[in-house]
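Holo model, MTE. Inputs:
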Amino acid sequence: MPLSRRELLQAAPLAAVPLLESTASATQAPPAELNPVPFNGMIVRMAQPMNWETPLVGGTRGPLPLYVRNHFALPNLNPATYRLRVEGLVEQPLELTLADLQQLGQVERELTLECAGNGRVFLTPPVRGLQWGTGGVGTARWTGVPLGAVLDRAKVKPGATDVVLVGADRGPVTSDPPSPGPIHFDRGIPLTKARQDETLLVWGMGGEPLPARHGAPLRAIVGGWYGMASVKWLTKLVLIDKPYEGYWQTVDYAIWQRRGDLPELVPITAMQPKSVLTNLTDGAMVRAGTTVTVHGYAWAGELAVAKVELSVDGGKTWAQALLPGKPVPFRWVPWEAKWTIPASWKGRSVPVVSRCTDTRGNTQPDQRDPDRRTYMINHLIPVEVLVI
Ligand SMILES: Nc1nc2c(c(=O)[nH]1)N[C@H]1C(S)=C(S)[C@@H](COP(=O)(O)O)O[C@H]1N2
Ligand SMILES: [Mo]
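Output:
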C-alpha cells in the first residue's frame, strides 16, 4: 500500500528549502484584497511578489488551483473604468471596454500553462531564479475572445508582423542585468501565433470571473506556449513590423539556439513534452509484493500527447501507461500505470520516472541541455521511492 498523499507530503516536502532570489522589487504594497492568503495547499515559493506553486502532489480536493507567477506586485485595475488600447500598425486604433470585448465573441477553452522555469529546483548545480518543484504548471477553462477577433476589429496594417502584449504591472528589475528603470511586464508574439484559435484574451476562469492574481480584468492566454507569453492585467496591444526585443524575451525568457557554430539568444516559445508523477515523490514508501497505481499528468505544448511510459529502473526499460481521457493539443492529460512490486525488492530504493512523447515523436530527453539556461526543464528526473 502506498502511503496517503498527506503522509507522502509530510515524508518528503518538495524542495523544502527554496533558493529565493528577488528578481524584481514591488513598486508599492498592494491593498489587502490583492494580497490573498494561500489556500488549498498552494505552495508559496515567494510571498511578495506572489509566487505560488500548484499542489500537484497531495493537498487538494476538486479541481487543482493554478500556480501563480508574478514578477511585480499585483496592479489594481478597476473593471468599470478598464480600457484595452490597440495601437501601432492598425488602421483603426481602439479603446475597448470589457463589454466591447465581450461583444466581439465568446469562446471557452481548457488550456494548460507551464512556467518556463518549472522544475528549476532539480537543476544541478543550483541556479538563480524561483525554485519551482514540479507544480509550476496547471490547466484551467478560460472564457474570452480570440485575440484574432480584436486584431480584425483594429484592422492590422500590411507590414505588421508582431503584436506586443503589455501588462499594467510595473517595476524595476534589480537582478543582473537590470532593467532600464521601472518597466511593465510585456511580451511580443508573431501574428501567426496571435491569430491561432488557442490565443485568447480572457475575462473568465473555471466559469468564474478571472481572479486578480491571474490577471483580472483581462489577460492573454497564448495556448501551447510557456506561461510568460500569457500576459496578465493586459492594458495595451501594440502592432509592430519586426519581432519585439523587450526585456522579457531577450534578457529574460530567452535560450541559446545554435546556427552551426553561431549561438544566438532566441525567445522561448512552445512548451516541450513533459510528464509528472502526482502520487509518488522522493522518499515515498511502497510495499514489496503489492501493486501500486502510479498517477500523473502529461502535456506537449501545441501538440497532443501520443504516449506516456513509466520506468522503475531509472529509464533503462519502459512500460506504456494508460491515458483514460482523449489526448488533445494544448491541454494536459492524466495518465496512470500499474506497478507490481516484486516481493524480493524489499529494502531497495527505486528510481521511478515517466516519459511523454508527442504526436510528432518528440520525447523527453535523458539529459539536461545547458543551452536552455534556466528554462524549459523537461529532461527525465526520477523520484527515489523506497520499497518497504
Ligand atoms: N503582467 C504579467 N503577466 C504575466 C506575468 C507577470 O509577472 N506579469 N508572469 C508571466 C509568467 S512568467 C507566467 S508563467 C504566467 C503565469 O500565469 P498565472 O500566474 O495565471 O499562472 O503569467 C505570465 N504573465
Ligand atoms: Mo513563467
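Residues 274-387 form a domain with the Immunoglobulin-like fold (CATH 2.60.40.650). The helical segments are 5-11, 98-103, 147-154, 191-194.
Archived with the compound record.
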